[in-house]
Amino acid sequence: MRKPLRRSLRTMSRNPELSALVSALTGTWMGQGKGGYPTIQPFTYREETTVSARGDHPDLQYEQRTWRQTAAGEVVSHWETGFLRLSSDHTASMINAQSGRAETMIGTWEHHDGEWHIELASTAYAGDDRVANSTRALKLDDVSLTYEMQMETNAIDAMGVHLSADLSKQS
Fold it and tell me: Distance between CA atoms of 68 and 49, rounded to whole angstroms?
């Protein structure tokens, strides 16, 4: 079972495009976002996301924390942690845990017009039977990261934007 891991690590270290994407993603990102959905009131939030890489493992680990803006001030809103695997064949997979829920996603990554694009779609969602489907689309360069998260629930039978944010890489 160790051979596939070693092969994956060698492939990652030899693929300059994948190495450049990992380098662009790694670090701390901060910024503002907005959320909403037909079943909830629109809101704004502050976000901090940290992405870490290890040279001896193909997965990137990330932690996302958000604070919602309310009339009474800022309150803790969301905390998510997970792993993102980017493969040299331009596939991507994510596993995350968030406030009693867990999600697995698969998708692709590519580089064009000076930006990295990562698109993921849920394959399984556990711990919250309200969510039927979700997608995440990320765009980044060396200094900015934007994303949009769409979802479909058992109350709304169509994909709709739930979250979007603009983040800047911190030095």
Answer: 15
Distance set, CA 106 to CA 16, 25, 38, 89 (Å): 22, 18, 26, 13
Residue 3: per-residue pLDDT: 47
Residue ranges per structural domain of the chain: 2-169
Retrieve residue 17's tokens: 């495009």
Give the Cα separation of 78 and 103 in Å (integer): 15
Residue 14: band (very low, low, confident or very high) from pLDDT cuts 50, 70, 90: low
The DSSP string of 103-127 is EEEEEEEEEETTEEEEEEEEEEEES
CATH class of 2-169: mainly beta
> Is 169 in contact with 144 (CB distance < 8 Å)?
yes
Phi-psi region of 57 (alpha: psi -120 to 50; beta: other; left: phi over 0): beta
**Does residue 85 carry a pLDDT above 80?**
yes
